[in-house]
Amino acid sequence: xxxxxxxxxxxxxxxxxxxxxxxxxxxxxxxxxxxxxxxxxxxxxxxxxxxxxxxxxxxxxxxxxxxxxxxxxxxxxxxxxxxxxxxxxxxxxxxxxxxxxxxxxxxxxxxxxxxxxxxxxxxxxxxxxxxxxxxxxxxxxxxxxxxxxxxxxxxxxxxxxxxxxxxxxxxxxxxxxxxxxxxxxxxxxxxxxxxxxxxxxxxxxxxxxxxxxxxxxxxxxxxxxxxxxxxxxxxxxxxxxxxxxxxxxxxxxxxxxxxxxxxxxxxxxxxxxxxxxxxxxxxxxxxxxxxxxxxxxxxxxxxxxxxxxxxxxxxxxxxxxxxxxxxxxxxxxxxxxxxxxxxxxxxxxxxxxxxxxxxxxxxxxxxxxxxxxxxxxxxxxxxxxxxxxxxxxxxxxxxxxxxxxxxxxxxxxxxxxxxxxxxxxxxxxxxxxxxxxxxxxxxxxx
Length: 446
Ligand code: DOR
Hints:
Blueprint: E1 4-14, E2 17-26, E3 29-34, E4 44-47, E5 52-55, E6 57-62, H1 75-84, E7 87-92, H2 103-116, E8 120-123, E9 125-126, H3 132-137, E10 146-149, H4 162-171, E11 176-179, H5 183-197, H6 206-209, H7 212-229, E12 233-235, E13 257-262, H8 263-267, H9 273-276, H10 289-301, E14 306-308, H11 316-319, H12 337-346, H13 352-366, E15 383-387, E16 416-422, E17 425-429, E18 432-433
Parallel strand pairs: 1-4, 1-5, 6-7, 7-8, 9-10, 10-11, 11-12, 12-13, 13-14
Antiparallel strand pairs: 1-2, 2-3, 5-15, 15-16, 16-17, 17-18
Helix pairs in contact: 12-13
């Protein structure tokens, strides 16, 4: 491996600016950023040819299925797909088998990732109705955060004991991330749908069963609990216009309550159920086009701070089911992550630095990730070279995720990832995953 890699002729997108320049990497870190750096200072040159270079995406919400559900994906397979999508670090969710609800299970995942991850990694500790002692014992540096399913989804991890919820919000020393949907309200709506349709509920009922009221009841409760306890709360995958009033616009720095939106909720709308069927079934549900547009606006206002994927692979066969009741919820998204987020740039909803802020800077700040998420001298060289005028054309043949399909098949995205560097080492180049062992455990400075 060359010690010093020089990226030349780049448009560097970082911290509000787009500046032409060169960037020198030495031993995995950014050694120098300058208008021009002499080739003689390096061992190898990567000519960016005038393309944009930006910090890689830090995806704060993925489900990589290992251990226990590896027919859908594992940390190796899904992180290979992730680097193809411009992700250089991921934070992985606890609804595996066994679920990550003990400190041993958490460390087991780090051990697996150490030998197989293609991007930098961290894991969440899952909360349950009876592991408050584990939440309290967690070393704040050893997990991305606590995941609380305040609504039931894939896996059996619902936390609905209010005393326990108050305990988590009072005692957690890491960001609390929540899945917010009211399970009792979902059950009531589902019963009504069963009365009306019998077992043949059409998937178009998904956003009716898991509607805006279901989301608001739960997310407003999470926000109230966090305010009461002064807790650090990050509400995951928001989907409705109604919930936007719960969050303050403005920069992420200094906020205790932050919000996330996922790429599929920014792109798909209820109008797509007709053509996509159960393939876009996910929790929370994809809602109306008006909700999608409100999410885009909230992102622009800084009411929503972070763009993530909620990559949730289920196999092509599992998702091909035309039975709404048994089709699993969740979509594979990491392989198109950054190109999907960049659609907002092409739609004039966000500037290019605005996309970078919400995919790299803000997750780094929100989770106190050490030395990543920015193009800064001394920081790790987690970078992507992006071509904004060459489209990504997702197809079944191109899929790297073990689940074997992409919700974007047949739907081109307007940008593509030319190169992804993880700690200065190529992880994706010229349309191919590069084998490497440079991925590292994320460090949390908290
Ligand atoms: O649609 C979803 N799928 N939402 C979740 O919260 C979980 C995820 C999964 O793990 O399949």
